[in-house]
Design brief:
137 residues; alpha+beta; 2 domains; three-stranded antiparallel β-sheet; two-stranded antiparallel sheet; 3 helices; 5 strands; 15% strand; globular; PPM-type_phosphatase-like_dom; PP2C; Protein phosphatase 1K, mitochondrial-like protein; PPM-type-like_dom_sf
Amino acid sequence: RIKKCGGFIAWNSVGQPHVNGRLAMTRSLGDLDLKTSGVIAEPETKRINLHHADDSFLVLTTDGINFMVNSQEICDFVNQCHDPNEAAHAVTEQAIQYGTEDNSTAVVVPFGAWGKYKNSEINFSFSRSFASSGRWA
């Protein structure tokens, strides 16, 4: 889609692709100047069934985290935390420690099995927790 619209993909020094050498994703809210290069705002979606007795959490992150911390590391950090707020802060701070140059934001949504896989006795409500690094506030 990017090439068909006249855009190009360039790889940065750490091997990450960027639209027109600038944007690290092909779907984005905003970035209006890249819409003519094939960047679209329509999300790619996937539906999965959750099982509250087995599933522990969902973590939503910005690219500033995903380029620095892999999915397994994110899960490991979250599993070490006592509550979703602490987990969101741990993930954002780790990305900053790894040297991210982009914004670092994480939302940790606990499910019914929160803490189950670390033998935790902590119960938590099913509210959402949000953390943004102070670096971009």
